[in-house]
Design brief:
- The structure is a single chain.
- With 628 residues, the protein is mainly α.
- The chain is built from 23 helices and 10 strands.
- The longest helix is centred in the N-terminal third of the chain and has 25 residues, at 139-163.
- The relative contact order is 0.14.
Length: 628
């Protein structure tokens, strides 16, 4: 007997992600039991089985080699793609951020966000469409299931509307082929998300297992969507409720507090902290534990730390190969075992000067999150020459690295930079060499971000002292000096997010949210001399030759050109130069999504080939038989 659920192929590489049906073939005409939607989604437990798939798949964004979250950072202000030896990687956006280059491989994961976004929406819509077919012990149980499904759908749409802008809105389960999708206005999608999240915030419980959707997680996403829509007062109201119940961790905890050269930040970001049920700050996590189905290693040490083991780049002052994954046998596990102490990085996600240097000023001289505090960050000069071939033959064996005088630009990009060790060191006890990062829960939302969002809300409202007060709650915990009202501008808010949330937040998404907010509100941007942005040319003028590199169209482009030294300077590496244009604020909709959707119209973003075929997007709530 072979009974399996089948997702029917359809439009845009969307349909494997949107449809659920059942292909039945069996020899016994009277099977005693088999899996079908009709006998699974009958109660709260059955409904949660679909939601668990959503929660499980959230983990994939952060885990594994070349994790998708890095594409969010490659298109942001704090990091770039460091794989300078790989052609086609997201370095030169003009050549490789194209509708035909939306991928789900090592070159970029833009396609992953599209596919996985609609896959999560599919799972959530199964529950939303079948909610009234189930039986529940009471109204509260039903509404908690419904609210959790609303959150999971909103979690995907929040990202999609900031990565891709106007996208198809799917509000139901599809059980057959569908090739007539239409793009929907992103603002109307966000309005619907706000309604859904208000319901979720009311009904989803807060006391849930780690890795499950909580009331506070619903509240954080409600805050983000409210901010998108300009409802800053509602975001502040929800934020105050969240932090009242989930205070920051301000005292040392976990076994890390007994280790030398550690501080509260090491505690907070350790594996132990993310498993510690006394941790009041974590609001939502993704999880991976040993011996759990679908478990994975985060591999953050491989992805985000420098490629120090590249022999041709890291050489001794007298020109010999300087480093190796394994030192001489007698020195394994000692201070000169770089692999043991920091992990074997390959420099894919490369921190830029803004993250390493620019955001750490005089007021951050004692900031526990900063490179100024011993043990918090690692510099290349903290590592050691440890190639076994040097032992007994070179004075440099066991000494700290010295930057090679003739290091190429490409090698310096990938092999020589500093990184926040306290956050990126996730040891893997099961591996004895080539350590890349182990199994761990990972924060999705923390109370620290809630304070930073409330601070940003006060900024948009023009209440700068209140904004400083919110940021100072987080800064005080980190032992940074307090900010004053005169310090507050969008640059300082983004700097504080970078200090606190590196490799946690969807950095590109949040930058685009801010860019849209400037365009929607018309608020003058003080970091650009009072520049005012508009929605009608948000992605530039479009048309032929749309690789526009002029300031004034959107905040995302202007900000990256101000603070991301690689794009600002057009740094040249082995396979091209770092280049972006105004329209790259939004990613290109996958070419196959548009061309296989033969019965409808999915719009392309302005600036990319195919945008000339766009039509007016629908709005959620509009009746349209073709689009629905």
């Amino acid at each position: 007997m072979n009974n399996k659920q089948k997702y029917i192929m359809g439009a845009l590489a969307l349909l494997p992600l949107l449809t659920t049906g059942c292909k039945e073939s069996w020899l016994d005409p009277k099977p005693l039991s088999f899996y079908t939607p009709e006998n699974t989604y009958v109660d709260a437990d059955g409904m949660y089985s679909a939601i668990v798939a959503c929660e499980r798949n959230m983990r994939h964004e952060f885990f594994g080699d070349q994790a998708p979250i890095m594409t969010e950072y490659f298109t942001s202000d704090v990091a770039v793609n460091g794989k300078t030896d790989e052609s086609g990687a997201l370095v030169d956006f003009d050549n490789y951020m194209l509708p035909t280059q939306v991928r789900s491989d090592a070159k970029n994961k833009m396609g992953w966000y599209w596919d996985e976004g609609f896959k999560g929406i599919k799972y959530a819509n199964v529950v939303l469409s079948r909610i009234d077919a189930g039986t529940y012990k009471d109204e509260a149980e039903r509404n908690a299931v419904l609210g959790t499904a609303y959150f999971q759908r909103a979690y995907r749409y929040y990202k999609l509307t900031h990565q891709y802008g106007n996208v198809p809105f799917l509000d139901r389960e599809y059980t057959g082929p569908k090739l007539d999708f239409y793009s929907y206005d992103r603002w109307s999608i966000l309005e619907q998300l706000k309604k859904d999240l208000e319901f979720a915030y009311q009904w989803v419980p807060d006391n849930v297992d780690r890795g499950r959707t909580s009331k506070s997680a619903c509240g954080v996403l409600l805050m983000k969507v409210s901010m998108c829509l300009g409802d800053f007062d509602r975001a502040i109201e929800v934020g105050k409720e969240i932090v009242a119940n989930h205070p920051l961790m301000t005292a040392r905890f976990t076994s890390n507090q007994t280790k030398p050269n550690t501080n509260l930040m090491h505690d907070l970001h350790s594996v132990e902290a993310k498993m510690d049920m006394s941790n009041t700050e974590g609001l939502m996590y993704v999880v991976s534990y040993p011996d759990v189905e679908g478990r994975d290693r985060i591999q953050i040490m491989r992805n985000a730390t420098p490629y120090w083991a590249k022999g041709a780049a890291i050489v001794t002052p007298d020109g010999k190969t300087g480093t190796a994954i394994s030192p001489a046998a007698a020195d394994k596990g000692t201070e000169i075992d770089n692999d043991f102490n920091v992990g074997r990085g390959i420099g894919s996600c490369r921190a830029n000067n803004f993250l390493q240097f620019d955001i750490w000023g005089e007021k951050e001289k004692n900031d526990l999150r900063s490179p100024n505090v011993p043990g918090s960050w690692r510099r290349m000069t903290d590592l050691y020459y440890n190639d076994p071939g040097l032992k007994g033959k070179s004075e440099w064996y066991g000494k700290h690295l010295v930057r090679p005088a003739n290091m190429s630009v490409s090698d310096s990009v990938r092999c020589w930079y500093s990184w926040p060790y306290y956050k990126l060191f996730v040891p893997d006890p099961s591996k004895q060499t080539d350590r890349s990062g182990g199994e761990t829960p990972w924060y999705i939302y923390r109370s620290a971000e809630v304070y930073l969002m409330m601070g940003e809300c006060y900024y948009w409202k023009g209440q700068l002292q209140e904004a400083a007060d919110m940021l100072n709650v987080v800064r005080k915990r980190a032992e940074a000096e307090p900010l004053t009202a005169s310090d507050i501008n969008i640059g300082e808010i983004l700097a504080e997010r970078a200090r606190e949330l590196y490799y946690e937040e969807n950095r590109h998404v949040e930058l685009v949210r801010i860019a849209y907010t400037y365009a929607k509100t018309g608020k003058p941007c003080e970091v650009f001399g009072g520049r005012v942005y508009k929605l009608d040319n948000f992605s530039g003028p479009g048309g032929t030759g749309s690789n526009v590199k002029e300031a004034g169209y959107n905040f995302w482009y202007d900000w990256l050109m101000k603070v991301n030294n690689f794009f600002r300077d057009g740094t040249e590496v082995a396979n091209g130069k770092y280049r972006i244009s105004v329209h790259h604020v939004l990613w290109p909709v996958p070419y196959t999504a548009i061309t296989t959707n033969t019965g409808g119209v999915i719009n392309q973003n302005i600036g990319y080939s195919g945008a000339e075929n766009n039509i007016t997007p629908l709005k959620v709530g509009e009746e349209n038989s073709a689009g629905k």
